[in-house]
C-alpha cells in the first residue's frame, strides 16, 4: 500500500467527521461536474496516465472505463476502487468500509454491479468498467441521477454514487417490481443518513422513465 | 496487504501447476481480498482462476451440476435450480448482497472463512488463525457463535448458507489436484474444529474445486430455506434452516433437514428427519421433531437464545412448507 492510499483510510489521520465532510462536498458534485466534461477525468487525452507503480510483481492491466481505454502497470494488490480513485482520478466512486460491507464503492463491471473495494484491478483486466462519472449523457443527467435529486434521495452524499450505480443495475435486472423488491435489491447499499424511503421513491420514479 | 505475485492461467492444468502450499486461488475475491487486506490471509501468490472453463448449470439423470465458477446470483436465478431445488435458490438469494452475489462463486462460497470477529482481528488470539494461541470468543463476545460441534479450541460458526442447503441434499464436491480428480461428499468435506480449528476441510494443498453435483431428488421441489437475522437483509444468519419434505396425502414420508448459524460446520439433523418420517403434517409433529434440533447443544455466555430460536426457525420452515402444499 502506498503512503497516499494509507492516508485515505479513516482513522489514519483523517477523522470520520473530516472524511464525511469531504465526501459530502464531493459526492453529488463530482458525479455531476465530471460527467459534464468526461475528458477532464483523465490526465491525458488518450489512454489515462497513471503514476508509476512500485513493487516487484507488476501486471499489465487494460480496462475500458466509461468507454475510454485505459492501460496501466498495476501492483497486483491494487483494488479497482483505489485504481479508479487514486490512479485514474475518478473520485466519484466512494470508499466507505473498504470491506464489502456498505456498497459505497459499487460500479458496473461488464454490465454487472459489483463492489470495487473487493475487486482486484489485475483481475479486472480486459473488462468494461462503468462508474458514476459514466452515467450522464453530456450535460444530461441519467434518469436515476435526476430522480435522486428530485426525490431527495440523499443527505450527506457519501453513499450516493454507490446507491445510484446499484439502482441503475437493479432496474436493468428487472428487480423494481414492488417497493419490497426494491428494498431487498437495494439492501447492499447502506445509507448512514437513512435516506431509504426517498431512495425507494427515486428508484421507482426512474424505473418508469428507464423502461 | 502483503506483496504477492499474480497469475491468471487459462487451463486447469496450468492453474494446478502454478499453485503451491503458499498460494491462493482467486475466484470472486469477496473472501480472499477482504482477508488479504486484514492480513489474515497472506498468500505469496494469487492464482486468478476466472479464466478457467469451470462454469455451467445442467440437470441430468444424476442430478444437478454446477460449475465452481458459476456466480451466486446466476445460480440463484437459474430456471432449473429455482424449479427443481428451490432450497438452493433461496439459500443463495438470502446471502450477502446483490453486488456480492454477482461476484461470489459457488466454489468460493463453500470455502469462505469464519466471520468470527477475533479471527478477523490480528491483535487477539485465535486458534483458527494462529494455532495454539487460544480462543478469545470462548470468554469474549460470542453472541453469534456456534452451539453445535464446538470445542474448547474454537466456537466459530460456519458462515455459508449455500453449504447448509447442499448438505441437506447430499451434494458432493468435485476436486482436482496433483493426485488427479476426486469427488467428496460435502458431509465428509468439512471438519469439526476439535483441537485443530485451522483445518476446516479435507481439501489438499493446491487442490481446486471444479464443481458440485446435487443428486437427483424429485421431492426437492418441495423445499425451502429460512434465515433469521438481526436485520432484514445483507446479514449473516443467527439461525437458518434448509428443509425438504416428501409428502403423501397428509403424511410426511421422508424429510431432509440441515441448519446454519449454529454449527461449526453446516449441520445436518438426521434425528429431526427421523422424527418427521411417517408422521402427519401437523404443528405437533413439527414441534416434537424440532426438539431434537438442539440435541447436544452447548450454549456460551451470550448465545443461549439460539436454542429456542433454532427450534422456532425449524418449526416455521416446516409449517411454511407444509402449508404451501
Ligand atoms: C459483507 C459480506 C456479507 C456476506 N454475507 C453472506 C451471507 O449472508 N451468506 C453467505 O453464505 N455468504 C455471505 N458472504 C460470503 C460470500 O458469500 C463469500 O465471500 C463468497 O461466496 C466467496 O466466494 P468468492 O468467489 O468471492 O471466493 P474468493 O474470495 O475468491 O475465495 C474464497 C476462498 O476460496 C478459495 N477458492 C475460491 N474458489 C476456489 C476453487 N474453485 N477451488 C479451490 N479454492 C478456491 C480461495 O483461495 C479463498 O481461500 C458475505 C460476504 C461479505 C463480504
Ligand atoms: S467500500 Fe466497498 S463495500 Fe464499503
Ligand atoms: S446520504 Fe449520507 S450516507 Fe447516504
UniProtKB/TrEMBL annotation, chain B:
The keyword Secreted does not apply. Pfam families: CO_deh_flav_C, FAD_binding_5. Residues 1-219 form the FAD-binding PCMH-type domain. Keywords: Oxidoreductase. Gene3D superfamilies: 3.30.465.10, CO dehydrogenase flavoprotein, C-terminal domain, Uridine Diphospho-n-acetylenolpyruvylglucosamine Reductase, domain 2. GO terms for molecular function: FAD binding; oxidoreductase activity. PANTHER family: OXIDOREDUCTASE, XANTHINE DEHYDROGENASE SUBUNIT C-RELATED. This is FAD-binding molybdopterin dehydrogenase. It comes from Streptomyces griseorubiginosus.
Amino acid at each position: 500500500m502506498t503512503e497516499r492510499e494509507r492516508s485515505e483510510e479513516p482513522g489514519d489521520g483523517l477523522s470520520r467527521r473530516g472524511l464525511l465532510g469531504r465526501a459530502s462536498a464531493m459526492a453529488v458534485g463530482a458525479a455531476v461536474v465530471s460527467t459534464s466534461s468526461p475528458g477532464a477525468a483523465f490526465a491525458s487525452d488518450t489512454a489515462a496516465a497513471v503514476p508509476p507503480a512500485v513493487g516487484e510483481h507488476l501486471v499489465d492491466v487494460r480496462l475500458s472505463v466509461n468507454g475510454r481505454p485505459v492501460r496501466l502497470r498495476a501492483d497486483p494488490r491494487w483494488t479497482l476502487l483505489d485504481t479508479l480513485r487514486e490512479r485514474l482520478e475518478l473520485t466519484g466512486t466512494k470508499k466507505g468500509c473498504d470491506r464489502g460491507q456498505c456498497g459505497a464503492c459499487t460500479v458496473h463491471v461488464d454490465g454487472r454491479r459489483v463492489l470495487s473495494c473487493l475487486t482486484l484491478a489485475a483481475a479486472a483486466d480486459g473488462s468494461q468498467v462503468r462508474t458514476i462519472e459514466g452515467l450522464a449523457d453530456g450535460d444530461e443527467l441519467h434518469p436515476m441521477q435526476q430522480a435522486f435529486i428530485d426525490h431527495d434521495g440523499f443527505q450527506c452524499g457519501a453513499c450516493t454514487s454507490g446507491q445510484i450505480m446499484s439502482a441503475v443495475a437493479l432496474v436493468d435486472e428487472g428487480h423494481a417490481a414492488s417497493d419490497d423488491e426494491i428494498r431487498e435489491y437495494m439492501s447492499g447499499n447502506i445509507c448512514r443518513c437513512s435516506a431509504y424511503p426517498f431512495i425507494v421513491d427515486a428508484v421507482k420514479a426512474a424505473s418508469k422513465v428507464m423502461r | 496487504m502483503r506483496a504477492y505475485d499474480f497469475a491468471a492461467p487459462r487451463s486447469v492444468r496450468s492453474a494446478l501447476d502454478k499453485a503451491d502450499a503458499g498460494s491462493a486461488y482467486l475466484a470472486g475475491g469477496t473472501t480472499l481480498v477482504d482477508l488479504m487486506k486484514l492480513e489474515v490471509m497472506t498468500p505469496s501468490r494469487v492464482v486468478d482462476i476466472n479464466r478457467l472453463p469451470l462454469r455451467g448449470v445442467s440437470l441430468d439423470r444424476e442430478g444437478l451440476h454446477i460449475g465452481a465458477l458459476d456466480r451466486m446470483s446466476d445460480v440463484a436465478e437459474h430456471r432449473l435450480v429455482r424449479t427443481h431445488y428451490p432450497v438452493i435458490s433461496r439459500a443463495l438469494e438470502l446471502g450477502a448482497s446483490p453486488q456480492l452475489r454477482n461476484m461470489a462463486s459457488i466454489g468460493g462460497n463453500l470455502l469462505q472463512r469464519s466471520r468470527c470477529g477475533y479471527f478477523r482481528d490480528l491483535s487477539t488470539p485465535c486458534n483458527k488463525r494462529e494455532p495454539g494461541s487460544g480462543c478469545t470468543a470462548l470468554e469474549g463476545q460470542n453472541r453469534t457463535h456456534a452451539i453445535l460441534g464446538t470445542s474448547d479450541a474454537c466456537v466459530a460458526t460456519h458462515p455459508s448458507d449455500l453449504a447448509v442447503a447442499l448438505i441437506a441434499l447430499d451434494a458432493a464436491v468435485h476436486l482436482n489436484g496433483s493426485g488427479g480428480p476426486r469427488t467428496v461428499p460435502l458431509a465428509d468435506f468439512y471438519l469439526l474444529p476439535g483441537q485443530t480449528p485451522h483445518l476446516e476441510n479435507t481439501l489438499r494443498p493446491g487442490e481446486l474445486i471444479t464443481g458440485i453435483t446435487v443428486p437427483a431428488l424429485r421431492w426437492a421441489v418441495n423445499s425451502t430455506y429460512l434465515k433469521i437475522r438481526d436485520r432484514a437483509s445483507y446479514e449473516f444468519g443467527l439461525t437458518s434452516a434448509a428443509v425438504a419434505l416428501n409428502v403423501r396425502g397428509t403424511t410426511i414420508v421422508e424429510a431432509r433437514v440441515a441448519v446454519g448459524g449454529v454449527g461449526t460446520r453446516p449441520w445436518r439433523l438426521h434425528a429431526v428427519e427421523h422424527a418427521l418420517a411417517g408422521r402427519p403434517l401437523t404443528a405437533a409433529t413439527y414441534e416434537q421433531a424440532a426438539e431434537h434440533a438442539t440435541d447436544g447443544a452447548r450454549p456460551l455466555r451470550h448465545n443461549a437464545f439460539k436454542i429456542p430460536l433454532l427450534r422456532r426457525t425449524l418449526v416455521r420452515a416446516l409449517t411454511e412448507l407444509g402449508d404451501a402444499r
